[in-house]
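As a representative case, we now present a protein record of this kind.
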Amino acid sequence: MTKILFWWVLFAGTHIVGSSVPVRTRLIRALGLRGFKGLYTLVALATFIPLCYVYSANKHAGAVLFPPGQGLRLVAQAIMLLAFVVLVQGITTPGPLGSLAEMTGAYPGAARGIQRITRHPQNIGFALFGMAHCLANPIGGDWIFFGGFVVYALLSAMHQDRRTRATGPEAVRDFQKQTSLVPFAAILSGRQRLVARELNPIALWASVALFAVVRYFHGWLFGGYRG
């Protein structure tokens, strides 16, 4: 459990420190934007792969926190389906906060589709992934590993918002004013409206199919709770 926590802190810490304004600015000056992105990716892989390896070697370590029950497992599966939908919609909807926009300098305009619900759909997708697996695996070590996805996804989104508000172009700041990190908050406050037809229908069906495939092969690929 301590090893899992150590690698989570190392992964999250290098990500957040590396993307902080002072460090990021110096690295971009020295390496260029592409060089910085490449180094950032290498550091991410160098810390995330060991994190997954250590968890895999210590899966289901620690005390059982509560009996999972079939009801909770069904809830977890529903949350995972939602996670796939949000994640794939986010990947297929270009936004001004993504690396592509920064690399090309072409920032999409007003929020659309899933961005009206949350400006960080990928982060929210990973947070939902972590929540679902915490419900399905109520064990100490599993909660550290999967709970880390929830904590990191939200902290990194808030960190990016803070950085881009300070250093991002006007298009990014306008996008932030129109949208919210918390799902549906901008809609409830009147800054946005839900437009279901803007959601990518191909991405929707692809996410449902991906969920079904992963669900079917999950035991073979990743195993499952054996309590």
